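Structure representation.

___
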Amino acid sequence: MKVVDLITSIRASTGHMSLDIVVGEGQIGASAVKLGAEVIATGADIQCALGRGPELVGHVLTTKSTVTDVNDFTNKTSVKYVFRDGLETQTFLSKVEVDQNGDAVVYRSRFTFI
């Protein structure tokens, strides 16, 4: 099974921030989101509130998504991370192609708020 890691920093806004995780390419997947040691969201459709930006500075948000290739027309997989604060959107994309139909990929991310 392939593993894709995304490790980066993200600007904390002055307002309330949220995160959406979108599995792309017509594939299916499920994710878990942790802010520090606390699990704040799990499931196939992630849309979660993170809190006020100033309170997030210095904290680490981690995610783990398992994506399975179910689309017979492509072996491409992707996970998009969309951070919103009401005014600005910050988007990050991870992608990889599986070797065979039906293969799965583990996507891991680590975002440090600055």
